[in-house]
Fold this sequence. Notes:
About 45% of the residues lie in helices and about 20% in strands.
Amino acid sequence: MENRVSLSQSHFENNGAGDSNREQSSKRRKILEQKKVIDQLIDVACAQKDHLSPFPSFRHFNCGGLSLYLQSGHGDKLSYSVKKYIQNLLKINMEGPYGSQWPMEEKVKHREMVSTQAHYIFVHEASNANVNGMFSKSDAEKTTTALNKKDPMVAFVHFRFIIEEMIPVLYVYELQIEPRFQGRGLGTFLMELIELIACKNCMGAVVFTVQKANSKALNFYQSKLRYTISSISPSRVNLLMTIETSYEILCKAFNEEAKAVLERC
């Protein structure tokens, strides 16, 4: 009797182990399939040459006394003058918020800006000839070309398509505007464009990092644009840690899955 019970128990235990293995294998397959779909979304988004083309009305910004136009660009195709402009504007805007961390962070940003994964929106001040946006489609599609030499750059956005917690997101690495052009609606305009680009490319959210010392930026994103501190931000993840980080990760999710992962309470 004992032998029969023992064999019976062994039989059920083996069946239980088999069921568990099959369940784990099924979960792994689902995860791999999901990752494949996400990777394809990222690849398609990254392959786009001009993320402005679906949104012609966003090629120009004429508001608050400003007459500006926008162009697309890529990190591996930046001219020397554009690289210097990006470096200088980063230093002007970010040296203060980063404080003593800036020398090290500056080197990181210099490496990031020329990555093949880096996508850009460049904002130029229109010359008299272009003040009404009267330049051709071919001019509008140029990137860091001779047109830029006539029309000075005044702002830029550096963004990438990446995966956060198995969610495809548009991650804003930089949104930098010259001080004299701030507070005139350009930042809101650029973030609206970024959100459109994210949705057009089936991204689940827009995500970015903001220094806590940059209280003006935090207030702008949270109060005016309704971004929230993400559940992947250090202040939300490391609740029991005594070491406080210098930044927050903010996000705006566009679907329920992304909200559940990136905006969960």
